Amino acid sequence: MSLIEIIKEGVIEASTSFRSDQFNAYKRALENEENENSSFFLELLIENAEVASNKKAPLCDDTGIPHVLIEIGENTPFPINFFDDINMGIAKGLRELPARPMAVKGNEIERLEQIKGLYDDPAKLVPPSFILEKMDGEGINIHLLMLGGGPEMRSRTYRVFHQRNNRKVFEEVVTWLKSEVPMLGCTPCIPAVGIGRTHFEATSLMLKAMAYGNLDKQNEFEKIVTNALNTLNVGTMGIGGSVTALGSFINIGPQRASGVRIVSVRPCCCVEPRRASICLNLDKLTD
Prior knowledge:
By secondary structure, this protein is an alpha/beta fold. The protein has helices at residues 3-16, 20-32, 36-55, 82-96, 108-113, 149-153, 166-180, 199-212, 220-229; strands spanning 65-73, 131-135, 140-147, 156-161, 190-196, 249-252, 260-268, 274-280. The strands form 2 sheets. The protein has a 4-stranded mixed beta sheet, sandwiched between helices.
């Protein structure tokens, strides 16, 4: 199979399928939910995910913006036309899905003001710059994330004075989330958190948290954030209930000698993170 076809299938998989840890988290939420109305909507979300997977239909009408993270082995050569093929595969996947047409026409100012309208072609929704880094061993891993607009409106990247106490950092994270999650609408959520030295690094770490996170394997700090949000009584779709967060994904990177930590927080909605991970077998790639 060509790289274009592999990426196309990855876009469709990310957009239409829950991972096993997501299904498991929803089943745990259903067992723990005490609000009858919230339980009803949890069942609908599970059913929606099953139907979407079976019919290869989008999990949400906001099909999201494609983001790409690439890991390449130290001695692995890039295939010919590697980046062009990824972009072509994304475009093909967006058309075949089909994704919602959301790309804005015009020059810089016209795009800001959205006065020229939208492109009809879903493939005009180009991804932002890829994140590329080295990994041990050989081969290439590609992670595709489809990020919707609701969580972006409730996200934040800012500095935190740590006072040499990690709890100060996580208390600030929880404070931010407690103010934003009730306005998210599409709960239960999964907060993704990146903590680094710069705004770029913190946001990159947050994206990696979404790419690598596992709801079946939660560490101490992820559980602290999740438990704090589950005291809010926001519940499913904001109608009240004991399950507001299914889990959390936290990624802590290198730090610098400073009194501040830069923290990026994104409360993923009830269908996110929408992701697909591809481990390329270079020997089997076709043109």
